[in-house]
Structures are given as structure tokens and as C-alpha cells.
Amino acid sequence: MALLTPYSKIPELNTATILLIENEERFQTKLADAIVQQEKDVNVNVRLARKLPLPLENGDSRPRVDLVVFVVSLRSERSLQAVESSLNYLASDYYLGKVCFVVTDARCGTLAQERMLRVRRLAASHHCPVLCAEHQTEEGIAMAAMRLLTILKVSAGLSPMATTALYLSSLTRCAAAPELDDD
Amino acid sequence: GHGSARQVALSPRSRSYGRSCVEPPSLFWQTPGRLTALGQRTPTARGAAKAYNITVRMYTVALLVQNEWKLSYVTPLYRFQYTKLKLYSRHLAAFILAEKQQGVAVEVGMEAGFRVTFSAVFGLAEKEEDAETVFIQIYSKPMFAADTPKMVWRGWLTCVNGDPEYLRSLPPDFVSLPLFCSNGSEYLTARVKSWFGRTFDCSFGSLCLSSATLNWLAALWTGCHPTCDIGYLKLYWSMPTQPTLDVEYTVNPHDAWELWNSICAQDGAEDMVSVEEVQRFMAGLETHLFRHFKIYLSAGSLVKVSTALGSAHQDGKIKIGSSDYITTLLTLLTECALLKTPV
Q: Are B79 and B173 in contact (CB under 8 A)?
């Protein structure tokens, strides 16, 4: 199985790489542009993919990925299914602070709460944070980019406060409340 | 009843890394975000559709059937009394007339007045805690005595198989009829809602049906097929393409039933239908379409479900086709209304 591993390649100086995975390929490009425009001090590489595993052809030339972001659209079931199957292709080391879930359309009134609950349970069982993003406005995209950059800099070891990705993840990871499981 | 207190015990999910002061995130600094009366609980299993024994007058049932109803949820009504229905009728009629004379009306009508009838429909409530259904009809009194009054608006408030724990927890003066269905002009619907709001201190909100609810309906209605011919199973999907692609997927009822039966037969529990079975049923239908047309229905959203027993639209519009399995539909809708009602 072609697992994506976090520590098998040598990191570059003052560089961070983020991998955005989205089945619909709608939010990815806008988010990527916003991320690259916002960050001035660090070199940020943004890589886009539809799903894991990544194709084997360019495997050697790819940089080390510091943060894997799964973008889930709550409007379609397929989005969540694609993410669930992609999770199997990440090495377990990634789940120690280098994976993040971004959810769009969480405020849509006609949707059931069940899909959001499933995302939260999935994130909680993998110890990852869940961010809700607004993908239709400029401000929303900029805000999501800013939040991802904050997490990325910690995951890449570039945070000035000597924070590790694992420590940050223990603070930000999604906690599914016990009563969600009980009933 | 529920005697045991639910303990919120948090078992530490992981040993802290290095520092002992780092604890796993606890609930104490997080608001659980419970915006609705019933929290986030969604049922994982429900009873299979049961045939309805008609103990209600045929005339009233005939009024419910064959009309398109727009759904709303209602918060509990304060001091609503079934003995005062005639009084309420007079008040509502006077209120509508007064509003019209104030110039609030947008409508141009030649009505001399309105006659309102409130009636209680017995037989729909299933459990002891359910309040009886209230049916409201508005007739317009014509200018000339020769013309017959015309029914211009009708609506009903109901509670079928509501969550008993929640209903019992309501203070004594409150009556909960969470599902409100209306048919008629928007203007009159707004007047009726406004009158209810003033008289019983309740509020209304629009009720949209999620795809999960529509999936349940599709499965439950298909399960009725052996005893009552559903005629067809039509699913309407909307795909997020440019321009939007609308898919109307018609399934032969017997084929749908065979698929449903093969899924249910595996589990054995006769009376209860679980959410996994519903998901497998829908997945089966989706894979079938994919095999023929290479379209992933799960990338779009289910907008409408329709059989001969009725139809339900995502926007909160339903049609009741027959009185046979009406309680199943109403139970599901009551639950949706209760889940959406804010605390």
C-alpha cells in the first residue's frame, strides 16, 4: 500500500508544504491562492489532490508534506465517503498533529446534522481538529487560509514558540462529546 | 421512566505527552452547542410502517389527503384549551378581518368576512402524551348571500408519536403540537401564524426535510409495498453541475421491494428498521444508476421522494396520497419538527 509518510524525506529550510485533498476540487484552488498570498515570511508549497493514494509517478520529486488537509463538503455524501477511504493511505505518524479537517456548508439549513456529526466523530477518533470554513466569500476564504497557515507553521516546526505539532493537536483536536455516542 | 442519571464520565483518551498538566479536552470549557430541544439525538432505528386503522371520520381524512401542505414547526402553545375551540374560531375570524381592514392586506378580495372553523381530529394521536390534532378551516363569506362560502385556507397542527420524555417534561400549561401544515395563500398563513403567536405565545419556523428524512421515507414506503401497492418509487435528485442536472429516478415498485426485502431479511428484526438498512437500500439504488449512467448520485442531493402513498419535497412540502400509512409519515414529520424546534 502506498502510504504517505511524514518523516521519510528531508525538510527544506524555511519551507512548509501543505496538501489539500478535496474530491470536488472546488474550494482547493481558491484556498491555495489565499494561502500563498497571505504568507510572506515562509516559503509555502501548496499541493492539491483529489484523493489518496497519490500517484506513484512523481513520488520522488514531491517535497515532504507537513500538513494534510481534508476538505469535506457537507452537501454531498460522496465527499465524506471519499475522505473516509483516503484516510487509510496515511501513515499513522500523520495523525499526531499533521492532519486537519475542513468542513464547508456547515450552516446550510436543509442539511441533516448527521453528516456534521459523522465528520466530528471521524476527526475525534483520529485526534484531529475540525475547522468550519465559509467558501463563498473572500473573507471566509481568507480566514480559512489564515487558520490553516497557523496550524501549518506549527506542523512544519516553524513556530517561534517551540510548539510541537503534537502539543497543538492535543489542544485543538475535536472532542466528540460522550452524549453523542450514548444515545 | 428514565430513572438512572446519565453520567458524563470522561475517560482519558490518551496519556499526556511529557507534561502532566495537559489533560484531554474536557466538556467543561466547551459549550455542547445544543440548539434544539432534543439535542443531537437522531434515532437509529424506528418501527416499520404500520397500517392505520381508520377511526377518524372519513370526511376529515379526505381533507388531509390530496392537498399539498407546507410544513412548519411550532413551539409549544401556552394555555391552548380544546374546550375553547369555538371561541378561537371567532377570534381568528375577527383578527383576519381587522388586519385586512387596517390595510395590511396585499390581497384584493371581495370577501365580506371570514368564517373560521377549529375542529379537533381524534384518532391521529398514537401515544398518551400526544395532543389531539387540531384542524383549522377558513371560508370566505361572499358579498352576495346567494354565493356559497368558499374554503380559502386550511391548516392543521398535530403531534404523532412525539418524544414522550420531552412531552412529559413540558410545564403543565403547555400543549405541544409541533407540526403545522398549511394550504392556501401566503397572506392567510401569515395571519394565522401571527394570531397563534399573539394568543398562545408560540413561534413558527419553516421546516425543511433533510436528505436523511427523505431516505427514511423512501425505505419505509417501499416496505409497505406488499400490503398496499405503492404504484411507483420516484426519487428526484439535483446534481451540482453547471447547469444543474435534475435526475428523476423511477423504480418499479416490485423491484424496489425486492431490494428492500433482501436487505431487511439479513437482519431479521421484524418490526424495527435500522438506519443502516436504509443506507444500504439507498446505496443499492445509487449503485444501480451508476452502473447504467455513470453518475454518482451521492455527489448530489435528494430533493423529492414520491410514491402513491404521498410525496415529500426538501423545501418542506408534502402531499398525502392515501390515508393508509399516514401515521408513519406523520411520526417522521413530528420528529423532524421536534428536532428543529429551538429550546
A: yes
